[in-house]
Specification:
Number of domains: 2
Order of helices and strands: HHEEEHHHHEEHHEHHEE
Strand order of the largest sheet: 1-2-3
Shape: globular
Structural class: alpha+beta
Helix content: 40-55%
Strand content: 5-15%
Radius of gyration: 35 Å
């Protein structure tokens, strides 16, 4: 081999080595780039999982606390009186507390006669026009835990009377007035109802211009249970167009009250006895805890 040929061979070997080195580097670079992409993808996924897990843990902690929706609704509906709640207790701002669930399983009649707060909140009230005729013993709001209402509104006739005020009832349509409690702003809410009823067409006013009573400390007929009227939170409208299960005796549902009127009362926190199996279509009572969401 000539000197010239030796140099050519050496030159080609050097070129081959350089090319091989560059290819290896490029391959490694591509591999590193792919690895970086994979790691970035993994990090992104891991971050999402952490966020999701964090939310799940938070939700789990809330579920673990197990605060019933009924307690949440009560706290939301009575903010001036209830300070806080936990899994099974309601704490009033004066430092006293009330148990939510006494742990006893009861029949419907037992819930009526000897309820706790959980029994009182156990049935959903169907707000609005779209409701079905109530099933047997479907009486949302008819179960009342009296110690709660006594705590808010007064534990005797004389105590309830301290908070009663008189408001003009539908002043543009009639020269009447009603007596209602001022506790928990019930008087303000009822005045708002009155103002809206005053704007109704004349053909609807006949159901509400004449009322049949508000405050009256008494037991419900035939029972030892206090009426909602005892606390100054209820109003009965014109009995000439009303139906009541005790009058009928057959418990065949009846109603003549237009739902436009019902919706006005509900808008301001009053439930209607016409949505009970034991129907009482003249009756409205202030029960905001049955008309608020728990959240």
């Amino acid at each position: 081999m000539t000197f010239k040929n030796k140099h050519l061979v050496i030159f080609l070997l050097i070129i081959t080595l350089i090319f091989s080195f560059e290819c290896k580097n490029n391959t490694q670079g591509k591999s590193n780039l792919d690895q970086n992409k994979y790691e970035l993808k993994e990090q992104t996924q891991e971050h999402s999982i952490k966020e999701f897990s964090k939310d799940t843990i938070k939700k789990s902690e809330e579920n673990k606390s197990n605060i019933p929706d009924g307690l949440k609704k009560l706290k939301k509906a009575y903010p001036d009186f209830i300070d806080s709640i936990d899994n099974n207790n309601l704490y009033f701002k004066d430092g006293t507390k009330m148990i939510y669930d006494d742990g006893r399983k009861k029949t419907f009649d037992e819930m009526l006669e000897d309820p706790d707060l959980e029994d009182m909140m156990s049935q959903e009230y169907p707000m609005g026009k779209d409701y079905e005729i109530p099933d047997v013993n479907e009486d949302p709001g008819r179960i009342r835990y009296e110690p709660f209402f006594m705590k808010i509104y007064g534990s005797s006739a004389s105590e309830v009377k301290k908070y009663l005020v008189t408001i003009k009832w539908m002043p543009k349509s009639t020269n009447a007035s009603v007596t209602i409690t001022s506790r928990n702003s019930v008087d303000i809410q009822l005045k708002a109802v009155s103002d809206e009823l005053d704007k109704l067409p004349q053909n609807l006013k006949k159901y509400v211009t004449k009322t049949a009573g508000t405050f009256y400390w008494r037991n419900i007929a035939g029972t030892e249970r206090l009426s909602a009227h005892s606390f100054g939170i209820a109003i009965d409208i014109n009995t000439d167009y009303s139906d009541y299960w005790q009058w009928d005796k057959t418990l065949t549902y009846k109603n003549r009250i237009p739902l436009e009127i019902v919706e006005i009362f509900e808008r301001y926190g009053f439930i209607w006895g016409g949505k009970w199996y034991h129907y009482d279509t003249m009756h409205f009572e202030y029960r905001p805890e049955l008309l608020v969401s728990p959240n």
